[in-house]
UniProtKB/TrEMBL annotation:
Residues 130-144 have a biased composition (Low complexity). PANTHER family: BETA-1,3 GLUCANASE, X8 DOMAIN-CONTAINING PROTEIN. Keywords: Cell membrane, Disulfide bond, Glycoprotein, GPI-anchor, Lipoprotein, Membrane, Signal. The keyword Transport does not apply. GO terms for cellular component: plasma membrane; plasmodesma; side of membrane. It comes from the Eukaryota. Residues 89-144 are annotated as: Disordered. Residues 9-99 form the X8 domain. InterPro entries: X8, X8_dom_prot. It is found in: Cell membrane. It comes from Ceratopteris richardii (Triangle waterfern). Residues 89-121 have a biased composition (Polar residues). This is X8 domain-containing protein.
């Protein structure tokens, strides 16, 4: 998806993406093992405006969009996550859940700036993707 200066785009989970890998990407974007500056995932916590629908794909899409909005100028692959995410002009916002747009300045990121001395490309997130078949609980509700 190519964007123009006036067109908003969103970074969302690919349809059919592996749920366990999406969960790992969600955890990474929300700060677990992320040294590029994590996003504030409180909106997808229980009681948050974007908690419902309570699915890994929906929570990941919100976190991916926040991450993309923060890093789109610094990293050309800011919406890839090992092929788990894609850009779309379709606004996934619904009800009280309002996604930031690629045009917004994002205020809900971690207070500390990214550590550029050891930056990991979004293509390298997380350092290892698990291939275990153990179920991964939706920890988005416990991610900070």
């Amino acid at each position: 998806v190519r964007r123009t200066a006036s067109q908003a785009v969103f970074c969302v989970a690919r349809h059919g993406a592996d749920v366990q890998k999406l969960q790992e990407a969600l955890d990474w974007a929300c700060g677990k093992g992320n040294n590029m500056g994590s996003v504030d995932c409180s909106t997808i916590q229980s009681g948050g405006a974007c908690y419902e629908p309570n699915t890994v794909a929906d929570h990941a899409s919100y976190a991916f969009t926040l991450y993309y909005t923060l890093h789109r100028d610094a990293a050309s692959q800011a919406c890839d996550f090992h092929g788990l995410a894609t850009l779309t002009p379709q606004n996934p916002s619904s009800g009280n859940c309002v996604y930031p747009t690629s045009q917004d300045s994002v205020g809900n990121v971690s207070p500390s700036p990214p550590d550029t001395s050891s930056m990991v490309s979004p293509l390298q997130f997380p350092p290892q993707i698990s291939d275990s078949s153990a179920p991964s609980p939706n920890s988005a509700s416990s991610t900070a």
